[in-house]
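Page 47, continued from p. 46.
Same chain as before, 209 aa.
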Amino acid sequence: MRYAMIWSSVCVLTSQLIVDNAKAQVDAPDAENVFKVNIIAPGLSYEKRIGYRQTLVAETYLSPYFTFSYSSNFGSNFYFTLLPGVKAAYRYYYNGSRRADKGYTTALNNMNYFSLVYIPSVTNVAISDAYFDETRKRVVHTIGIAWGFQRNYRNRISLDLYIGPGCMIGKSTDINASGQYYSKPGIAPTIVSTITMGLWLNKRRNDVN
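Result:
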């Protein structure tokens, strides 16, 4: 009888802990899907919830690129274009409970996050130690780890910012002891960062500040 009472008490306590933990998971702020149109670098982004406070982000955009030159013989020359690009990222939002305890909204992923960022690009940027310009454009893969935050407001304005260390990986041109150019795999440190402003397009709701 004594062991039965102890066993019964353990079962009740364990069941209560399971229920309390499940309730905490339900009540705690979680990530959700967010669809946005970006303005600064025109494009679209979609954030998909894949787990508790975890999302995957896919983004397509047009990046502004311009050059200006001046010569006393030929005058000034201005060139402007929009270069297409894509980004992908994994995010983990970490401060949802703290924001909720302070009375701040966490709706539409209004939280801070850590992120793994991947950006492929077609470019002739030099990434070798010799800094030789590439004669042809090739694919360069940029990978980084970043800290950031997202804020989506009731008037539909959306602000997203992240920054962190990264590296660029791709083919690079170098020169050997004989003075001949050759191609080799190259890696160069870089900074991954962005400031995105746009509009969130989810259904309008009242739990957004």
